[in-house]
Amino acid sequence: MDVTLAEILRDAVPYSLPLLQPFRRITDREGLLIRGPSGWGEFAPFDDYSATRAAPWLASAVESAFGVWPEPLRERVPVNAIVPGLSANDAGALARRAVLEQGCSTFKIKVAALGGMLADDEARVVAVRDAADSALRSIGDDRPARLRLDANGGWSAEAAERALGRLAAYDVEYVEQPCPTVEETAELRGRVDVPIAMDESVRFGEARAFEVADIVVVKVAPLGGVAASLDLARRWGGPVVVSGALDSAVGLAAGVALAAALGGEPSAAGLGTGALLERDVVSPPLVPHDGHLPVGRVAPDLDALMAARDRLGDDRARWWRQRLVDAWEAGGAELVAKLAA
User: Fold this and answer.
1) Order of strands across the sheet with 13-23?
2) CATH architecture classification, 76-294
3) Active site residues
4) Which of 130, 188, 194, 327 would staple 54 via disulfide (CB 3.0–4.6 Å)?
């Protein structure tokens, strides 16, 4: 794949999308969409990521816009709904809407927020359990909702043991990245019965994370693209959950492509984050229907994309274009060159 920086920048469009409620302490999702002969790709590393850490996000965007994705094994993929660190009442209302309006029956619930209390986490989990199960019964589905917890490394091993001792009572499928380090997570693993999914530690290249994990969470953009993510999943060989990074519809399509290429019975992917956006680069936002997202590339709507571009402002637009250049120089060029290998 012979792609130059000038070609990538030529049709790059910066964007800003408002969120319905704060997530990861942000209120707007920003990034760049790039266009190539294969379609559109998304470059949207979070602001606190270094240029080196942003480089795989650039390779992923270039793969989407200039490369090819693996052949899909299915036409749609199941997804889970995302419950941010909301109050119990708001979390329950969100869960009910996700069942009745989007057909979701699996929920990933944020816990261990900075400054948060275990009582608040428990109230949120209880609210989702009650609201989701009630909504499912109302449509004739007697199966309990599946609950996943995502701590984003917010607990020490001791705090995680205390928290999971209480939260496991609500039938938790797994807890994602409970502790900030692999060492603490390994210490925790022998103390709790809840399966552990590793996310950040895998993305940041910590080899021992695979020894600790019961499940590996795979995110396309931070890992350098669909092909690289599929290769990691196959080398791991164990259970995999595909997840996203609060992407626009363009970025979500790459995650769906990965989930569609995995063999075996697909686990609900963490790609329901379009429901957290007030507006998207497509209109309406890409949200689950019947608990699934369709497989296929996504092209932004011109009006929606221009509105997202105008919302960003010139200074931030220049900042994002420079950030892409920095990522290219910090390793992105080498990663892009490897896409053709």
Assistant:
1) 13-23, 26-36, 39-43
2) Alpha-Beta Barrel (3.20)
3) 110, 219
4) 327
User: What 3-state class would DSSP assign to 204?
Assistant: coil
Domain ranges in the chain with CATH number 3.30.390.10: 5-69+305-339
The answer to whether 216 touches 253, Cβ cutoff 8 Å, is: no
pLDDT per residue as tens, the chain (341 positions): 789 999 999 999 999 999 998 887 889 999 999 999 999 999 999 999 999 999 999 999 999 999 999 999 999 999 999 999 999 999 999 999 999 999 999 999 999 987 779 999 999 999 999 999 999 999 999 999 999 999 999 999 999 999 999 999 999 999 999 999 999 999 999 899 999 999 888 877 777 888 899 999 999 999 999 999 999 999 999 999 999 999 999 999 999 999 999 999 889 999 999 999 999 999 888 999 999 999 999 999 999 999 999 999 999 999 999 999 999 999 999 999 998 76
Amino acid at 101: E
Given this structure, which CATH class describes domain 5-69+305-339? alpha beta
What is the pTM for the complete model shown?
A: 0.95
Burial of 116 by CB count in 10 Å (0-12 exposed, 13-18 middle, 19+ buried)? middle
The total of other beta-carbon atoms located within 10 Å of residue 330's CB is 16
